[in-house]
Structures are given as structure tokens and as C-alpha cells.
Amino acid sequence: MRRVLTLHMENQAGALSRVAGLFSARAFNIESLTVAPTESRGVSRMTLVTRGSEHLVEQILKQINKLIDVIKVVDLTESPHVERELMLVKLRAGGENRPEVRSLVDIFRGKIVDVTPSSYVIELTGTADKLEAFLEALDARHILELARTGSCGMARGEKAA
Fold first, then answer.
1. pLDDT tens-digit readout, 88-119
2. 46: domain range?
3. Can you give the CATH number for the domain in which 143 is found?
4. Can you tell me the distance from the alpha carbon of 105 to that of 124, in angstroms, rounded to the nearest whole number?
5. Which of 43, 55, 153, 161 is 20 to 30 A removed from 144 (C-alpha atoms)?
6. Radius of gyration of the chain, Cα coordinates, nearest whole angstrom
7. Is the pTM of this model over 0.85?
């Protein structure tokens, strides 16, 4: 089962390493990971996506809660939440396929953020499914380079996680 976890943690050297170490020590994969400072000084927010049984994730959550740098852990999976990912993709776009690429970018509500005579860099945000659908709609031979941030998530409503 896919799980989206958010952690508020002290912005200290080694904090990320300790969380990742818990996962690797149990041969548990992290599908995506984003970390950045929050609105609170000295606190970072980590959004982590993983897959596993309810029991296994429960065990990991208990271990994460024991880490000294961790302030709070929330499993967003079971509650209404907003989840987004950013993707930059550099495409070969020369001559006759340029209008086709522009049309596809418009359909997926993306932005062309860099243009050269032979390429485009596209910025696209949305759910992982949306980004995957965009990639499937492209001719894979046109993809020159791809970078994705991984998911970033937050609970819906006025209550802060």
C-alpha cells in the first residue's frame, strides 16, 4: 500500500540521514523524498512516499517518532490531503514536432520554461499520475533529460499537520 508521510524535524545536520537509515536498515524502500524549511525557524518538513503493509509502516512510524530530531510525524494517506510533484523535462523539439509538443504541454497545463532552436524545457506540476500520463503521451525518443522533485503533501483544511 502506498503511504505519504510528513515529518516535522529540527533542521540539524544528520537528521535526514537518521530517517533514511531507519528505512534502509529494514530493507524498506523510499519512493520519493523532499525536504525543505518550514514557516517555523529551525524546523524542516520532510515528505516521504513509500510502500508497505500497514503493520510494517506502523513499525517504521514508531521508530521515526523515537528519533531525537523528529518533532511530529503524520501519515497523510488516510486523510484528505493535497499532493503535488514538480517535473522538468527537456525534449528534442525541432521543426515539425514543435506544434505537437506545445499542444501537449497546453493539454497538461504545463509551461515551456526554456526554448532553443532544437529543444524545449517543460515544467509540469501535479500528481504523480498526471506526470506519468504526460510522459506516456510523449514519444520517448524525444526525451533528452528528466528531473522530478518527488511528492510534497499537506493535509487539507485549516488544521496544520
1. 999 998 888 889 899 999 999 999 999 999 99
2. 2-78
3. 3.30.70.1150
4. 8
5. 153
6. 19
7. no
